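Fold this sequence, please.
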Amino acid sequence: MRYLILSDIHSNLEALETCLAVAEGRYDRVLCLGDLVGYGPDPNAVTGRTRELAEAVIRGNHDKACAGITDAEDFNSLARVSTFWTRDELHPEHLAFLRNLPQGPLVLDGFELVHGSPLDEDEYIVGPLQALPALAHLAVQAGFFGHTHHQGGFVLGPKGQFQSIRDWILHQEAEHLEDDAQRVTLKLEDGTRYLINPGSVGQPRDGDWRAAFAIFDDAKREVEYYRTPYNLFQTQEKMEKAGLPEPLILRLTIGR
């Protein structure tokens, strides 16, 4: 089975549709690690598209805030503005869907789905301090997480060797696909644990503005990391028209 893993779409319809176009014919099932909404200009279209496609979706912190489960007090001022705008924009059926999303971790077909961490759905796994306890906690070989908007993840080898997958990706020669998309493939090794971050579809923060996603092949035990350009300017024009904060519009250009 081949699983398309999406995360942190953040109401960016152009990025989502481009990812789906690149992934077309390459997957069997769609899974989402949360944060469908927040920041971007198309919360209803993105929520509707994700509901239509994904067989499993877990909630992210922006889904909770935009659905009114949390009050967004821990968000910065720009994130709060986009949260309140999104609450006003969401149709009742999409609001109800977001409110009812399950909390991770979710074990599915021998691997695990979380938004932040297996230990705390809102924790950011950014380095060994957070990754090592999470890797030790895994009851399965591989867990998929989002939240940081950094494509990559972390590895714990059978002898305790720790590695950043992000660093590994940066040293690989990417395979070039149609429409300027790129792919790097990671082979999962026996006796090794993995935390896999597919990257953010709609709000990359790893210095690469292109949309990110991953495909997991459980038969081949491989994770394919993808990056693809999308119509960034269309998304930014929509955000400007909606009156969303200018810094949120500009940051999409640099992927930070």
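The chain has one domain: 2-254. DSSP finds nine helices and 13 strands in the chain.
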